[in-house]
Amino acid sequence: WVGLTMICVGIGSIAWRTIWFNTRSWCLVDNVPISLAQGTHYESGELPGNRNARYEINIYADNKIDPKRLKCLLGVLKPGPTCDASSMLRARWVLSSAAKTIQGDSADTIGYGVDGPAGTERMIGDFHNEKGRRYKLSVDIISDTAGLNVTNPRLYVGVQDPSLEFNLVVSGLLRVICIAIALLGIVILIGDLSF
Hints:
Layout: H1 2-22, E1 27-33, E2 41-43, E3 47-48, E4 53-62, H2 67-74, E5 91-96, E6 101-105, E7 113-115, E8 119-129, E9 134-141, E10 154-159, H3 163-194
Antiparallel strand pairs: 1-10, 2-9, 3-9, 4-8, 4-10, 5-6, 5-9, 7-8
Helix pairs in contact: 1-3
């Protein structure tokens, strides 16, 4: 019975944690292709958020042009001698819910973004999600940045705080511990049956 209990606890805990993790709204908009041509309008469907958390609205672009130029055009670098503000990506966004509307402009977030070996991301806005509230997001591109469409731009809205990374680590550790408990239960069960 001890072995069977350990197997059930190990497998049950992994299943419970997986179900819990997969039902959290870590990401509200996941890599939706978006044109960066002037006048482009994107509107999401209803975004159900089941977490009280801060979310970022990001544009991702692949490094298919010179990375420094890409950072300038996306607005990851602040305007200066190497980056002309007039050629940077500019967008307006509106997040609406039944009782309230939040509006933002990407000019407020110039310089917020990161680059990596595969691509560059630029935050164009952020907001605090209230658990249980349903939102709709609309984004309008107001800059003439159609040349960036060769970089396969995508829109992403996801959790900004470190809770996602923390929960991934916790889930990984829990999985290792639960597998060890289940394996020990199997060893106990086999040992008991052999006698």
